[in-house]
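ok trying again, last paste got cut off:
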Amino acid sequence: MEPSETEKQKPDDPESETVSPRCDVPLQSDVLESVGARCNVPSQDVVGEAVGANGRSPLPLLPYEIHSAGFVRRFIAFLIDFMFIGFLYLILALFGLFGIYLSNGWDFSPDLMEPFGAIWFVLVIGYFAFFHAQSGQTPAKRIIRIKVVNKDGVLLSHGNALLRSIGYLFSFGFLGGVGFLIAIFGKHKRALHDFVTGSYVVLTSD
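nice, full thing came through this time. structure:
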């Protein structure tokens, strides 16, 4: 019996068969273009145009559902960041104390020590605001491979990055950590400062 046209066109080598991509899972940027049309996925150019206003680049995982970082990852990153901040503060404090010693000897009066509290405040707020606005990742977040973005998958504006950093004071300070603990719950694991600024902490490959 002679094979049909369909059977003739079927390749003998199973490895040469075309496998239809799954459209329900995130695609990496290097295969997005090749299968985008089949899955009705907009190109990177289209996504970039949709992002728009602040000209910041979208994450490759969008326009798919946001893959949120869990509480444990976020907490570990936070502890590592505070180790970095503590080290920077120690260096600045030593320079400050040395300056006081040169001008006043060993007279470390309370009035002379007050600026050290302000230095700590500025360092903490500035550290998180700078890195979240520049790349969405502090050094610790880069190690843990998580990133702070907005709902469109782009970096926070400088204003929102600053506001989010100030929000740490409420999440950890005034609320005794409760503002951060709410990240244990909910679909996207968002803390209080995330809700205030419309931010998400997502998993990333870089």
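cool. The CA atoms of residues 15 and 47 lie 33 Å apart. The mean pLDDT is 75.
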